[in-house]
Each structure stands twice: as structure tokens, then as C-alpha cells.
Amino acid sequence: MSLRRSPTTWSLFGGTRSVQSQLIDFTLPELAPARIEQLAGQLAELGCLPEGFAEVSAETPALRLVKLACAVHQALLAEAHLFMPEETEVLPDEGASTAIRVAVPRIPMLGNMASTSLRHIVGCCLQSVNGKKPATQWVAETRKQLADGERTMANNHHFARAARELGMPFLEWQGQAFQIGFGKAAVAMRGAMTQDTAAIGVHIARQKQACNGVLAQAGFPIAMGGLVSNLTHARGQAERLGFPVVVKPADLDGGVAVSSDIRTMEELERGFKSARAKSPNVIVEKHVDGLDYRLLIFGEQLLVALERSPGGITGDGKRGVRALLDEFNADPRRTKDQNTLLYPIDLDDEAMVMLERQGLTLESVPEEGQFVALRRAANFALGGSVRRVDDIVHPDNLELARRALRTLRLDLAGVDMILPDITRPWHETGGAICEINAQPFVGEPVTEDHYRLILSRLIEGEGRVPIVLVVGDLDQPARGKIAAEVPDLAIVDSSCARLNGQPISVPGSAWPLSCQAPLFNTGVGAMLCILDDVTHAGAGSPVDRFSSAFILSDDEVPPAVQALLKRAGSVALAAGVKDEELEKAGISTRRITGKSIADELLKALK
């Protein structure tokens, strides 16, 4: 088997979503059909093939094996919670029986992982067919590799998934940013930051000392404290503030290396070293008594309010702490996997300190219902728990959080507050804002899909503009008439893309790339994609779907163009264009009658 990238390494391919996909050419040896079907049965038994896929196929052995590998690939990625915005696409067969071209969509923000893993799976399938490696072995190995793979920017993956579910197109940018929607209807994002999020607010929120200073100036309750340069300085700060104190990095989010409720110099030293290991900038501040709350707010709307408790166990009056913790961690849902909703609690130095504070040992038997804290911080990733409290948040406390976001010019953020009682106003009970997370994890451990809610509020409809495909040339008078009546129309042909007569793509680029340019242009309200040379269709589809398509040429419609037409909402034929081939390909058509081509196109573009 040989694998190589196509000369056009990156193109836009349709499917269920429009994303950057990598072209891979597989050249396979002659294969025995019976062995491939045997492998299909084994893979079905291993639970990595969709129902019915293992049934005997009449396809060529090479095509069957590649499609088999693609199905396994899709299933194993889904198991590992690795979202692919569209399915892998096996491109139209051009007559070769052993050479197969595949368009593999990128997993958002994970580069070449999808194409690399597909190559691996195709290779493993070949080894199994040739009797060199059993499917049970490589499927287990691949599952582990995908499950253990590094995840970054989790919000991006969830927004991509939500966009697909809402029918919105997703385009990945460089720098871990992305776009949902096309042209004027599009919105750009990066994680939980939208194009309306003020960069200055994100910067200030990430610098905890600066954020506290701004909030204090604006009249918000905050914890007293400040930056410390070394351990000696930290000790002096703790003495001035009085124990208990909190030690944390000044420029990291997500509760990283935060040590709360520190009561001794020994604990202070450990907390300082932990924070300094993550950042050179460390804060020591006064610990505020109360319960820990996270209010997730978007556009003044409360998405969720959570009361967060530190990790620990609850006594039953019969068993000791060690046995209770063993049972707690034995829950199969509690893992250290990056996609888990429940985390275990390690029996480490912090756990022993917390037991000592409560006058307990590992063998102590807590009373029934007695909660034994094994962590200082109410951090979900440290085995903590959460409880929804949306319906009991006092309006004054909610307004405090909203006002903080307005002050920093943030549209989406998590406000962390310490309050004795969230049902009573902060100005009566005391408390403080301890952090504003301008890049929060939107998928808090609750049932609502906040990603879909946010996209529905950010984007009108599906975030699309009319995109019409024309197969064949369109004369200049018709182009001029259409451009005069459709504002902000981008016209693309084999030369380049133009908006209001001005080029917006590099002349001479491949047709799909020229079609791509208007998708990113916020001045584009509609697109007319003229495929005046059908050989350009072999490079793939520029979008996931066209509003409609028009065939003006009576030339034969090759399979690659048929694939584009299948993405159109409707297909219209000019006079003289034959429809027999299209009917055989399962493409429904209508004949243009009574109107000029220009009038039909105008109707489709408005």
C-alpha cells in the first residue's frame, strides 16, 4: 500500500459540514474479497461498525476495504469524543480499481490527527486481511491511543458539534479560532470568546491582580491581597492579612494551582511552590469565608449558577475514611480522562492535611451523613461536586455579576463568587468576587446545551447567505444585470472571486479556493459560483451545500460535478441540457421555462 497527499493538500470539501479536509490517495494491492468480508464481521463483533455495514458488498475489494476503514475510523473517533464536523468522503471513482482518493476532514483544532489515524487504520486493515495482525489487537490499541490523546480548547470542539446540530457551517481558522456561518452572516470565535468580546477585558480578567484593582476601583467587593515576589514576601503578606489565606497564580484560569484556606506557614510554603511552578506571578490574598459559586453569564442572561463543594466523602456510620474513599473512586464514571464528568480523589498530602484538620485519620469512622472534605478548593476537576442554584440566586447577586461583566466589557464569562448565602444580597451578608474567567468552559456539568443556546443567540438562522452554483459559462450581460440588482454579491469563476467588481482572491487560484474567499468576507451577502471549467470540480466542493444549482452547458456532466449538484437544494436545466445522466445519478431536476437565465438566478440569489 502507498499513501500520499494530493498536490492540492488542503481544499474545502462538502459533506454535512464545510471544513478543511486533507486529500489522501491510497494505492492498494490486489485483495481477496472473502478476507475483507471476514474482517468486516470481526470489526462488527468488536462494536466499531455501524449496523448493516458488515453485510457483503459488491464493491471492488480496494474500495470496500477503504470504506470499511473509514467507518471504523468514524466510530472510534466518536468513542473518544473526538468530533468530526463531517464524515470522511470517498471521492468519485475515476476508473482505477486499486487507487482510492479520500477527503478526510480535520478534527477542529487538532491538526492532522484525523488523517494520521485513518492512515493507521487502513494499514491495520491490510495487515488483518493478510493475516499479520488480528483486528482485536489493533482496535484495542487504537482505542487507547485516541482516548489518551491530548485535547486542547474543548469549547471549540463543542461549538463545532453544536453548529452541526443546528445546521450551521463551521470553518476553522489558524490560531485555534473558528468561524460559524458564511459572509455577512458569520461570527468569529475562539473558545468562549466571541467577536464581540473586548480584548482588553480578556487581558485584564486573566491578570488577577489587575482585575482585582479594576473591580475595587469600580466598587466591587474583592479579597484583600496582592502579588508576592518570593516565599519570604509571601510569609510577610500572610502575617499582615492573617490566616487563613489563598495562594494562586496571578495569570492562570481554571483553578490551576490554587491553594485555598491555608492556615499555617508550612501549608503556605507548599501552596507558594505549587503556584510558582505554574507561573512566576503569585498572589497571596485573604481567604473569604462562605460557599463557592460560579455564575455563567452570556449577554446579560444567566446560563447557569452552580454551588461548588470541595472533593470529599460522606460517612455512613459504619466504614472508615479509607473504605469510603475506595468506594468513591471505584465508580467507573470517575476517571482522569479529559472528557469525564466525574473525577477521582487521590489520597495525597492535601487529603491527609484536611483529615488532620478535622481530627480524623484514614481509619476514623465518620457519622452517618457527615461530610469529610479531602480538598481545600471547590474544584470539580479535583473530585469536587456541583449543585445547580439558578432558581435561588438573589437578584442583587446576579446583578453584581452582570455589572462586573459590563465593567470589563465582556459578553460571556464565568464569575466566581464567595458568598455565605446566595439567597441573600451580597451587601448584607458580605462576600467577594474572587475571579472572573473570560474564557470559561461553557459545558459546565449540567444537562443543558449552552453551546447551542449561545450560537442560536449569536447567529441568525443557520448563518448562511444564498450560494448558487452555475455549471457552464454565464455571459457578461447576465452577470452585469445580476450584480446590479443583488447587493454585496460575490461572483466566482475560474479566474478569481470578485466583490463589486474588485478581486477578493488571488487570480489563477483553484476554483474551490476562489469560492472559499467570499465565505470569510464579512461584506458578502450572496455568492454566485460559476463552474465554467468542469475539470475544476475534481478538487472538491467549496461548501457543504448550495442554495440551488443551474446547468447551462449541454456537455456531459462528469461524476465530480454530479457530486456538487447533489449538494444543491434544487437543480435547474437550461434549454437543450439533457437530464438522463442526472436522473441515473439520482439527481432531481426541473426545466427553466418562461424566464431568462438571469431572472431565474436573481430569484435564487434574493
From TrEMBL:
Record flagged with keyword Ligase: yes
ATP-grasp domain: residues covered: 212-467
Pfam family, one: Dala_Dala_lig_C
Protein's name according to its UniProt entry: ATP-grasp domain-containing protein
Organism field: Alteraurantiacibacter aquimixticola
Membrane-crossing segments per the record: none
PROSITE patterns: ATP_GRASP, CPSASE_1
Taxonomic placement: Bacteria, Pseudomonadati, Pseudomonadota, Alphaproteobacteria, Sphingomonadales
Keyword line: ATP-binding, Ligase, Nucleotide-binding
Repeat listed as a keyword: no
Entry superkingdom: Bacteria
GO cellular component terms attached to this protein's record: cytoplasm
GO molecular function: ATP binding; D-alanine-D-alanine ligase activity; metal ion binding; ribosomal S6-glutamic acid ligase activity
InterPro entries: ATP-grasp, ATP_grasp_subdomain_1, CPAse_ATP-bd, Dala_Dala_lig_C
